[in-house]
Structures
1.
Amino acid sequence: MNKMKISWQTLGMLAALLLIGLVFSVATEGTFLSPRNLSQLSRQMAVTSMLASGMVLVIVAGQIDLSVGAMAGLCGAVAAMLCVQADMSVPLAFGLALVLGAVLGAAQGILVAALAIPPFIVTLGGMLIFQGILLGLTKGVAISPPVAFLAVGQNYLSAAATWGVGGAVALFALWQGRSKGRLRAISIALGSLGLAALFNAYEGLPVPVVLMLVLAAAFWLVSAHTPFGRHLYAIGGNRDAAFYAGIPIKGRIVAAFTLMGAVAAAAGLVLTARVGAASSDAGRMLELDAIAAAVIGGTSLMGGRGSVWGALLGGAITASLDNGMSLLNTEPYWQPIIKGAILVAAVSADISLRKGKS
Amino acid sequence: MPSLLELDSIIKDFPGVRALDGVSLRLNAGEIHALCGENGAGKSTLLKIMAGCYGHGSYQGAMRLDGVELALSSPREAEERGIALVAQELNLVPALSVAENMFLGREKGNRIRVDWPETQREAMESMAKVGLDEDPSRPVEQLSVGKQQLIEIARALSKKARVLILDEPTAALTETDAALLLKLVKDIASQGTAVLYVSHRLEEVFQIAHSITVLRDGKSVRSGPASGWTRASVVADMVGRDLAAAEASVPVPAPSGKTALKVRHWSVPRPGLPGFFALKDLSLHVEQGEILGIGGLMGSGRTALLSTLFGDLRSSCSGELSMDGATWRGAFSDPGQAIAQGLCLVSEDRKKMGLVPGSSVAENLALASLGEFKGALGLLDWEKLESAAQTQATALRVRAASLQVAANTLSGGNQQKVVLARWLLTGPKVLLLDEPTRGIDVGARAEIYRLIRDLAAGGLAVILASSDLPELLALSHRILVLSEGRLSAELGPSQFSPEAVMHAATS
């Protein structure tokens, strides 16, 4: 649990991802696995997976946040407006957007923890409110942020930097696995070097993907290796036990929502930059994609169980489905139908396997 | 004349425990039969068999109604045969109306449409039988607990019950309501219903019962007309177990004389019942190295005492608490503060309040002290944590395949040791134990007793609340007995006897 161990569950997800990749590459005669498409796919999954990493913390504590999509849209638009209309520098606008997300998240967390309003209600209300504010701010007109803003969504690392990232991940994995789990460490190292080569075969590692990886690594550390993170698991796993162990439940929940808010803002910046515009319906439904990714990745909505890496895999699975179906020119209405079916199937497989085990 | 309902040599086994060992019981029409016994004597199990919760085939022995063998498969079938159980906890849906609750699961009308006028009319009729005159469309939650209890009885009667089983019906009632209920029970019996009445309140038993059966350790020790007993003889039969079977007394160093925790005028109101108290004006102290026993029946305030001392303010309280020369008005604001002061609580309900089931044993062990194991960058130092957990686990002889397995895979005794070890990692001064060996097998019990003694010998102050008399008597240096939220006796070692505790607890 505390180590990054690969369970049957993770293996199952990896197998599902490989199967999806195989099916699509056969169906598209190789286009799916082309460096260009994989680069595209990874950029598509970045925003959802960032949100999903934060969502794991919230769900693991037995909570839910339905407002993250609207919050991402709102924070992205605010940053864009600060740059365009207030002539603010891009880093300052980004900083303010992150603070805004954190404050909105904290406010929702306080309503949930201190007033004991169910998180479903608080964040459903938050979602509607943020959508309304976004519409009011943009007045339905898309705002185009300056070029410096677009970097976080559209730029690529140079080939050397891409190799650097791949190499760093490989070295870290090998160092982690120096005593046990060598096989796993070696496969992760080879995998990351292979991916670096793949990305360099196109234009290099996309910046949003770098941000996604950094964020996921940070949240993995927080969730698996800090007292704060372990407290969240305990709260979701058995709230009474956590209370009797002296864990400050309310404070922890507020903190989880605050982090989630900041992550939503970060995801919103990447989203706005990738699309190249802040529109009035930006981020809509992203919260559901993020929840779906976390759940497909093994996070239990009952709380107490889930992992950030799983959510990343879940995000990769849903993004691959979207991308593959687009390549095949499937009618657009099939995409949500297939995703919905996969979500239900993944959870029911998890439940029946779990029953069989215990 | 054959009895209305006859139980013949009922044996019921649970994994590892024989809950009932050849119990026989006869209920006659028009008779009130009281069933007495300590907590854990097997009463609930017996009631559940009679009410069809444990179906035919899950136990040995025979049950006969009017001399004809019964093979019940479900509570519904029991009700159809005229056996109705009113459980100790209210089984009403709070937001639904009185009438709906009355006919829950057997709605009037047909499959498609509920016949509301008929439902209301029959609900009124059933209520009249228990002396209630409430608006049948009122939500049940707006009625007092006493009236809700009467609604339950009315519901049972409306099922044309010939055998009515009442499990501690007065436990949550005020004295006035209880008196009304007792009168009602007599009326019901005089109309020819057989009543099986389970109660800890012996005065009630002697007020209404025609005959009494005492259960002990799953056996019926004695059964006969109420006139053949006195209160003292009932108590003697309830507790008369071989005390030698409890732990042979191992000498423990006497208390140090240094007060570890002192509580004055501690009062805890009962939630939802203004004017009623789970604990009323209780004062006590415990010394370093002392094991202070808290005796009393279920609902006497034992659990309320320990949980409020630990800062569980889900029930508010007043009074004064001192430790180490410092004094707090009221209680600690939350368990975190209590832990910081050196208190810890091993609660009665391990599953609900102790363990995080899916987390590893190591993590459960360290749950209350995770902050102590921070290493570089505020990250957890797993090696340090695991070695500390391993040390405690070894000291307490926790048997687990490894510290990495999920905590819920351990046996009850080992789970309890994990919870205990968690607290020892926080370096406590006062250990609060609430039913520390409930549901734990005999072997593990002995180990937990040894641990408690060792901890006290090491200078820890221990408050031990237990309904297990041998346990209480064998471990304690001093015993306080609670009855209905008040201190009813303080016993020194020379006064220790099961009868003394039972007398004080039922007074």
2.
Amino acid sequence: MAGYLFQRIFQAVLILLGVSFITFVLLYVLPADPVRQIAGRAATAQTVENIRQQLGLDQPFMVQYGRYLAGLLQGDMGRSYLQKTEVASLIASRLPATLLLMAGGIFCELLIGLTLGVIAAIFRGRPLDQALMVTSFVAVSAPQFVVGLLLLYIFAVQLGWFPIGGYGTFAHLVLPAVTLGIMGSGWYSRMMRSSMIEVLRQDYIRTARAKGLTRARILTRHALPNAILPIIAMIGIDIGIFMGGLVVVESVFGWPGIGQLAWQAIQRVDIPIIMGVTMVSATAIVLGNLLADVITPFVDPRIKMR
Amino acid sequence: MVDITPVIVSPEGVLRRLLRRRLALVGFAIIFIVLGGAIFAPWLARYGPNEQLFDGLTLQGAPMPPSGDFLMGTDLLGRDLFSRILYGARTSLIIGVVANGAALIIGTLVGLTAGFLRGWIGSLLMRFTDLMMAFPALLLAICLAAIFQPSLWIVVMVIASVNWVQTARVVYTETTSLSEREFIAAERTLGASQSRILFRHILPHLVPTLIVWGTLGISVTVLLEATLSFLGVGVQPPTPSWGNIIFENQTYFQAAPWLVFIPGAAILLLALAFNLVGDALRDVLDPTQRGQD
């Protein structure tokens, strides 16, 4: 167990190292010159050169990358080119909003997805089941920005139940969280349905029925817990899909998280911020996958750790 | 007479079973409508997609709601939305098919090479695939698109370089499990060459998987293109794309919701269509899925 964990963590670190290298290469070959952006149009060649030296951008690639890695190990992600603030503190100040949004999104996708999946499994093969499965396809096919704008239009503009955008209260959270959750709920409802159908086919369910337990009791006490467990382990893997959705949802709702930070940084070629957010997202994804791998054997003892 | 059932189902049989599924039919219908709209756009559209019409705006300069003259209304610049939607279908389909095709080819090559050759080349390729899985895909795509001044073909390239990863993993898993099967070992013992095993035995077995992933992947690609264009780093105006129509008009969406929701519905329907067809194909082609529903 300890050996397995150690090996997985080692792999995760290697992957993150690779991600940092590739991102650095991509940003290094970037045709847009960040120094020009900082210096402005009126700057003389001398000023441009000074800034370049100040930022260490005149150094060879490997030196720059080495410096970045050395900083990263000490929790230093460099400074933003334009805002002069530490990237680490910029990200730290944005992270709570993003985590809140993610928690809300995961809650929504589980609530909607699992409920619909269980209902579909109970009504398996009947019109309600078919209708729910079509709904799940619509959910995974709907672009998040359209869902976001639609929810905004109906519930904020027309009905006025929620604010049009921004951050602060619970009411601000509802629409972005639902938007983020809808796509995933489509996948979860399909997984939950097949997991539930699989469990309902087991012998112990037949035994429970033979004992004369009520249908409701069989479902809630015997089938549901067993059907949900394998799905819980999937949440870790979900994080990667969420990371992408964040940029879109935060931009639609003006949510002040790291997705918006990254988006603004990309438009202004603020490389340290882009680098930082990519690293934080990649870490979240790798941790999520690691978590999923570690949790699965606990949830389902039939799966052994290798 | 002995009844011999073929191992790999015939294309006609697959098509017949596919057409028996209502949802697949709905999917095909949507795809044909979009395809028809894209091909016959010059004949179907009453105005040019970039034509700023004299009577395309109200006297106050606001876009016109849908009417007999403008089936889907006009946009902020007084262009006919229906014409833009029709020409936008071309963008979506071209990117959906080409970018996804490229991603499928890259993914197949990587997965097949890694699964068939194994060894250090195999592990190197799969570690690289793992690495790509850890990348926040949309963030990477936005970065790439912002780095290279986006054009239609850059968007295709960006999507292909992000979307091949899933295919590579699936193909890798299938190839490794196929290579361990007895009939491959038997071929080896009989002295078959590597290329014969690869092209005559492994690749044909991968075809159903590739068809399913290829179809489902178009839906993912259509959504990714729309998202990039919505963020302004995809297909650049004035070339119409369903995503950038929303990008151009979203500031005005409270007053003119059709400018956002008509292209939005178009994206959803096209992605849905490929999902429905892909799912039906999986049921029909994948023997392990048969009888599950």
